[in-house]
From TrEMBL, chain A:
<feature type="transmembrane region" description="Helical">
    <location>
        <begin position="12"/>
        <end position="34"/>
    </location>
</feature>
<keyword id="KW-0408">Iron</keyword>
<dbReference type="GO" id="GO:0046872">
    <property type="term" value="F:metal ion binding"/>
</dbReference>
<dbReference type="InterPro" id="IPR016002">
    <property type="entry name" value="Succ_DH_cyt_b558_Firmicute"/>
</dbReference>
<dbReference type="InterPro" id="IPR011138">
    <property type="entry name" value="Cytochrome_b-558"/>
</dbReference>
<feature type="binding site" description="axial binding residue">
    <location>
        <position position="70"/>
    </location>
    <ligand>
        <name>heme</name>
    </ligand>
</feature>
<keyword id="KW-0349">Heme</keyword>
<keyword id="KW-0479">Metal-binding</keyword>
<dbReference type="InterPro" id="IPR000701">
    <property type="entry name" value="SuccDH_FuR_B_TM-su"/>
</dbReference>
TrEMBL record, chain B:
<keyword id="KW-0408">Iron</keyword>
<feature type="domain" description="4Fe-4S ferredoxin-type">
    <location>
        <begin position="146"/>
        <end position="174"/>
    </location>
</feature>
<dbReference type="InterPro" id="IPR050573">
    <property type="entry name" value="SDH/FRD_Iron-Sulfur"/>
</dbReference>
<keyword id="KW-0003">3Fe-4S</keyword>
<dbReference type="InterPro" id="IPR004489">
    <property type="entry name" value="Succ_DH/fum_Rdtase_Fe-S"/>
</dbReference>
<dbReference type="InterPro" id="IPR036010">
    <property type="entry name" value="2Fe-2S_ferredoxin-like_sf"/>
</dbReference>
<keyword id="KW-0004">4Fe-4S</keyword>
<protein>
    <recommendedName>
        <fullName>succinate dehydrogenase</fullName>
        <ecNumber>1.3.5.1</ecNumber>
    </recommendedName>
</protein>
<dbReference type="InterPro" id="IPR009051">
    <property type="entry name" value="Helical_ferredxn"/>
</dbReference>
Amino acid sequence: MADNREFFYRRLHSLLGVIPVGLFLTQHLVVNHFATKGEEAFNRAAGVMEGLPFRYLLETFVIFLPLLFHAIYGLYIAFTAKNNIGRFGHFRNVMFFLQRVSGVITLVFIAWHVWETRIQAALGAEVDFQMMADVFSNPLMVGFYIVGVISTVFHFANGLWSFSVSWGLTISPRSQRIMTYVTMVVFVALSVVGVRAILAFV
Amino acid sequence: MSENKTVRFIITRQDTMNSAPYEEEFVLPYRPNMNVISALMEIQRNPVNAKGEKTTPVAWDSNCLEEVCGACSMVVNGKPRQACTALIDKLEQPVRLAPMSTFPVVRDLQIDRERMFDSMKRIKAWIPIDGTYELGPGPRMPERKRQWAYELSKCMTCGVCLEACPNVNSKSDFIGPAFISLVRLFNAHPTGSMNRDERLNALMGDGGLQDCGNSQNCVQACPKGIPLTTSIAAMNRAATVQSFRNFFGSDHQVD
């Protein structure tokens, strides 16, 4: 293992992006979507998540540690690339570039989002419908959150595509093309779920 | 008419390995069917730049002149490719020539491709058949598999895929697409597969196939049309299996 450390880190980075971080993202967006059914439905759904047993354990090992590793190692990956979409403008190279751009945007967004919600909760604030409604009383924040959510969902969906190549699930050009369609459907579907939830608070 | 026709070249030059690059312009008389190499030969015969000043001839590397040796790779109008098959009639003017910046420049358009030969040694890009006694014939390769492997064997170590790859640069140790595909070639060979785990483990070392970011520029740029991204994905699968075998132990290191 000693001389395969980079291989291990890269594969771990790829895995953690999907399991658990990607799964948590999906679950989070679905819970948020309860906001479209009204304040009470959202508070009930959020309350269930808040009341899960072993909450700190779950938060640490399902969210924070995997997310931190994925974010920090991902930044390193993003900044070792020398992008060349000017010279090679085909689809996959553009996606390669967008994956790195969306990763950085997502990192900024999530850092802000965690500060605004989870850290405030730790400092004694009540996380509920009213909290988000207050955040979104500022139209700039609505824009920031929509950009952040779409960027996050894109990074996840396109990451699913590279995950399937990196682990050797899709090998042939045709299988990779079909995976492109599948992941773009995931991107559109989760974007709709995420943006609808944001607009429900406005 | 054709006597007055000219071709303009803007060439990125560099006098020594460590000196700063600069651009020099040349205007050559047009000849039918000329390519970048014949143009460079013309400059060599008469090294006078567009301002009419006498200058040093432009240095470049070339050998076979039929796109099988890989020596004359350079950046022609922004795209890495072989100069010998870059026909002037098919190029936009002025024709811009530059060395492939992924490699150390020796002089002008001449680059040092040593890193690729080191990579081939690292991944053991050969089939060991030497022994202290006659080993006899190896296992037969099915004909259809041979035809398939022939496509992978067209790699001429020209370096175009490394130049096209966003992850091959001075900030990264990535060996580049060609060598991932070469592991697939040698591991597909019936005798070569007897050492497949050694090649895979070499490929999984630092700077190995895990550094691929799937931009898929390589398969677009490869002058030989080698299915590089298919090879990368296939080697990813093999490396996944190999990593489990390494970690948990296995009775199937080579079969």
